[in-house]
Amino acid sequence: MKKICLLLSLVCFVGYGEMTSNAEENEKARSSQSASGAANVQTPIRRCATPTLPKEHKEIIQEELRLYERFYRSSDVNAMVGSTIIRVYFHVIRNGRLGNVSRKMIRQQIAALNKAYAPSRIRFILSRLDYTSNAKWFDGCFDPYYEDQMKKKLRRGGASILNIYTCQPTNPFIGWATFPYQYELNPVNDGVVIHHATLPGGSLPPLNLGATATHEVGHWLGLYHTFEGGCAAVNDGVDDTPAEDKASTSCIQQVDSCPLPGLDNIFNYMNYVEDACMTQFSKGQRSRIKSSWDLYRAGK
Ligand SMILES: [Zn+2]
After folding, report:
1. Which pLDDT tens digit goes with each residue over 90-134?
2. Cβ atoms 91, 165 nearer than 8 A
3. 225 in Cβ contact with 247 (< 8 Å)
4. 66 C-alpha vs ligand 1 centroid, how far in Å?
5. What confidence tens digit (pLDDT) does each residue in 228-261 have?
6. pTM here?
7. Closest Cα to residue 162, out of 221, 211, 105?
């Protein structure tokens, strides 16, 4: 465990302040949105604003997970008994009637999470639900200034509590999340933010079956996009998700976009396909979720 702690210290020392080009693009979008107050989502295209971590941080995290799996968790995740319970604190931000999602939609969202994560032996329980009417947070939640205000006021619990916020982020992003490794550096920021209309029954078809929350919770549990790294040999840190040159947006036709073996992950929750196509986490992803939970969130 010493080695793991040493590596973890290094992550904290290096910090997560620097981000790669993908993240810079998102940050630019955030800045321009802050300045212009851009229009709301009009085209239902999945765009996730979760930043890509710097390569050197990903390497350290990968080594921590590898060591953990080698020395502390050798058993197959599929052979495990019992479930991990994750308590959800759900924060609805509304602007009058806008974004005032019903309790039924929230229950359906929790059910969608439970269906998606059942093979990972994870069960989500709604433990807290609050409604806040705040026009600035509702429309401005993608602006780091208002996001920070919102989370400082509403976030509760430690690293093991899943705080989900719904609001109306500006085009084109419909959700983002923090990674488990980032909790120590910035606990208040920890959580998942999603567009309210992506909840089951929301007004953003074909992205209204609840898969946006499932995707973002995937990041919160340590997963990267399946297309991360493109066709490079080292990509999303999971062995059984074939490399993809870019995000898939449809599951109608199977694609093989990289010379490396394997077809694109067009049914995977960590891709960009529409909700109805999202039906799978791979075995490798389920294992990474388990290790990330144990290392960075369980009991914290
Ligand atoms: Zn994402």
Report:
1. 999 999 999 999 999 999 999 999 999 999 999 999 999 999 999
2. yes
3. yes
4. 23
5. 999 998 899 999 999 999 999 889 889 999 999 9
6. 0.86
7. 221
Is residue 152 within 8 Å of 180, Cβ to Cβ? Answer: no
74 CA distance to ligand 1 centroid (A)?
28
Which tokens sit at 35?
């300045």
| Cα separation values, 179 from 69, 192, 194, 201, 219, Å | 19, 10, 15, 27, 6
Residue 33 and residue 179 in one domain:
yes
CA–CA distance, 83 with 274 (Å, rounded to integer): 28
211/115 same-domain check:
yes
| Helix, strand, coil abundance in the chain, percent, nearest 5 | 40, 15, 45
Q: What residues act catalytically?
A: 216
Backbone φ and ψ for 287, nearest 5 degrees, come out as -70, -40
Rg (CA), the chain: 18
Same domain (yes/no): 148, 243: no
Extract the runs of DSSP E, i.e. beta strands, from the chain: 84-94, 122-133, 162-167, 175-177, 192-195
What is the whole-number distance in angstroms between the Cα of residue 229 and the centre of ligand 1?
13
Mark 203-227 as b/e (b = at least 16 C-beta within 10 Å). ebeebbbbbbbbbbbbbbbbbbbbb
Q: Let me know whether 47 and 132 are in one domain.
A: yes
Domain check: are 143 and 262 in the same one?
no
The answer on 168 and 31 residing in a single domain is yes
Q: How far apart are CA 214 and CA 3, in angstroms?
A: 32
